[in-house]
Amino acid sequence: MSALPHHPVRAALLYVLAVALFTAQDAASKWLIADYGALQIVALTKLLTLPLLFVVLPRLGGLRALRPRNLGLLVLRALVVFVSLTLFIWALAGLSLPKATTLFFVTPFFVLILSGRFLGETVSAWRYGAVLIGFVGVIIALRPDRTAGDGLFGLDLHGLAVIAAAFLAGVEAIITRRATATDSTPAIMLVSTLVMVVLAGGPALVLFWHPVALTDWPVFLLAAATNIAALYALIEAFRAGQASYLAAFDYSGLAFASLWSVLVFAELPDRATLAGAALIVAAGLMVVRGERRPVT
Question: What pTM did the predictor assign?
Answer without folding.
Answer: 0.78
